[in-house]
Design a protein that fits this description.
single chain; alpha/beta; Rossmann fold; 3 domains; six-stranded mixed β-sheet; 17 helices
Length: about 400
Amino acid sequence: MTLSPESLDILEQRVEDLTEDARNHAGDEPKKAAALFSKAADVHERLAEAKDSPVVVQAHENKAESLRSNAQSQLRDAGLNPSNSMRDESRPETDVQSEVESTFDEVETDDTQAAIEAAEFFENPPSTELEDVGGLDAEIGRIHDGIIKPHLYPEVFNAIGVDMSNGVLLYGPPGTGKSLIARAAANELGYPYAGVSAAELGSEYVNKGAQNVQRLFAEAKQIQPCVVFVDELDSLARSRSGGPEQTDGTRQMITQLLQELDAIQGSEICVIGATNLVEDIDGAIRRSGRFDRKIHIGAPDADDRRDIFQIHLEDKRVSGDLDWNEIIEWTEGFSGADIASVVRQAGQAAASESIDEGVVSPSDVPGITHEHLMEQIKEKEPGVKEWEEEQNHSLS
């Protein structure tokens, strides 16, 4: 197993923190101490696998053995693993092991939840599911291949000899579901989630933006496994080679981001970047090793648009039949955000119309009709088309 120097530093700090925490709980909370000693031993074994020097490898293995001995001692104090002369024969060893594993899971959960609650950027795993995205079957398949599978089954990738990708870049027109996909991926993994934009990380003060990036990833290293979503990556990480609009603070922020992306290689931190303008992102950030996979999220096709409409109409009251052929024909070039807006505005129009007609009893209020939808569709400029025209104009 090959880890970057930064990743090794993270593990070295992690094992120190775990060991100190275990010692603090020893005696008073032996079950928790045992779980922490065991986790620290696991990290020492991981470090042993990553080291080349036989002396250093042996040192980590010795520390792992010592920590496991400490864990056993704490278990005996807790009555979970008594000596043979004191063993409770009525309690199978498998029950003891099950309780130890359960205790370890509780420690991990408690520590992670406490870190999330104290974090500035992170929240619990989102409730958004991939089914909520609507359409984009091919793109979602790539999300499974590039994000979900490597993080759920790292042992399979390790067995083949390929590294797990820590960075995935989603690119394409605005409103096509990139942020929704990132939240859904975190949900699928069950990982804590941090969603930030360039505007949130940036600052008018020199060094502040870089400090924000550093603080974000410091939280990620503590909370991992986790998902970090950085929206508007093109704004945060424009090429350092030019542009009169770029400040010293921006350049420092990009440099800090590069350092953080290198430092998480081999960790359980998944970074998902999103951009409308992939060509504007600094080449050093786009290169393999930082964002190994680049997935295009384009405008939904006809079938996708119908799926998205049905998702947004699912919890709405609809009156009469919908002419899907007409709806699909008129919504070419619409993004998922456009469709969500159409449904919302059609619902508002239906409610306003019901009030004007004096129908205000909830049981009597009619729903959204095909006409309501078409009226909003015909008034709306397709977001993808508008964005493409703006890009063409800026290049001319």
